[in-house]
């Protein structure tokens, strides 16, 4: 059994104007050390599906109308809020598109990472600060001591994303969910962040669920791909064979929108 096994998942948002079905019988799995990409056009249900792994869709209006999400054999949909708190950041961590909205603008980044260290390891203030600098170094931030003393706005977008990755990895998660982690960055920096994720995965053997609309990114880093359309999986398979011979017109359309595909 894979580390993460989503089976027949249905997610609904029950809003004033009616019910929006964000996932309609989605099944996918991610094994240890594997990267699975979730692709699809805007509104296809990628983020709602990914957030459901940590039960982070707001309930209400979100209702999990069916299916299961097994994390190491435990169904996330049946867990108490207390158990979920134990999973978030420990077993499963997330990295989002825009680090500026997740980082506190008036706190030095080192202190923000140290806070996460203290939460996970209960370390002393000094030990947490040292561990934070190490985490920043591991995330490929040059001169991490100096950077730790800076505020988010003093860092480039790429460095801010590295800070977020450092924070996500402090709890040594077994699953990392990366939702459009490079979309806000320019192309060169995108490639560096993807390389960092691949490198960290090799070192720690994490399972990565990567949400992106960019099939170029998928071609570079993913092992398998799951194609979503209107909340349904229309096609799934290993990246290279699927990209070479997509079965569905929808996948072909997505591929046509991608200028060039390369693998690192
Ligand atoms: N909190 C919410 N309340 C109401 N509807 C929601 C909520 N979150 C998502 N939805 C709806 O669920 C559907 C799927 O949205 P989701 O964000 O998962 O798509 P996506 O594939 O991630 O799109 P994008 O690439 O634009 O982020 C959409 O119709 C969206 O409007």
TrEMBL record:
Belongs to the ABC transporter superfamily. SMART domains: AAA. It is a peripheral membrane protein. One of its GO terms (cellular component) is plasma membrane. The keyword Cell membrane applies. Residues 4-255 form the ABC transporter domain. CDD domains: ABC_NikE_OppD_transporters (cd03257). The keyword Nucleotide-binding applies. Keywords: ATP-binding, Cell membrane, Membrane, Nucleotide-binding, Transport. It comes from the Bacteria. This is ABC transporter ATP-binding protein. It comes from Amycolatopsis mongoliensis. GO terms for molecular function: ATP binding; ATP hydrolysis activity. It is found in: Cell membrane.
């Amino acid at each position: 059994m894979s580390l993460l096994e989503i089976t027949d998942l249905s997610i609904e948002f029950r809003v004033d104007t009616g019910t929006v079905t964000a996932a309609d019988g989605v099944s996918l799995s991610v094994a240890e050390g594997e990267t699975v990409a979730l692709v699809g056009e805007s509104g296809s249900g990628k983020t709602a599906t990914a957030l459901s792994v940590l039960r982070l869709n707001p309930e209400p209006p979100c209702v999990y109308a069916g299916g299961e999400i097994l994390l190491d054999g435990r169904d996330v949909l049946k867990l108490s809020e207390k158990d979920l708190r134990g999973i978030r950041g420990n077993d499963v961590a997330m990295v989002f598109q825009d680090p500026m909205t997740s980082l506190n603008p008036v706190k030095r980044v080192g202190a923000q990472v140290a806070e996460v260290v203290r939460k996970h390891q209960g370390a002393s203030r000094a030990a947490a600060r040292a561990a934070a600098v190490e985490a920043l170094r591991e995330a490929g931030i040059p001169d991490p001591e100096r950077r730790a003393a800076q505020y988010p706005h003093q860092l480039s977008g790429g460095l801010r994303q590295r800070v977020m990755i450092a924070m996500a990895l402090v709890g040594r998660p077994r699953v990392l969910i990366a939702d459009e982690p490079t979309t806000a960055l320019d192309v060169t920096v995108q490639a560096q962040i993807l390389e960092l994720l691949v490198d960290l995965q090799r070192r720690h053997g994490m399972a990565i669920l990567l949400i992106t609309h960019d099939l170029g990114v998928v071609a570079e880093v993913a092992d398998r791909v799951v194609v979503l359309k209107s909340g349904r999986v229309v096609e799934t398979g290993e990246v290279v064979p699927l990209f070479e011979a997509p079965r569905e017109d929808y996948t072909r359309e997505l591929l046509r929108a991608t200028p060039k595909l390369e693998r690192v």
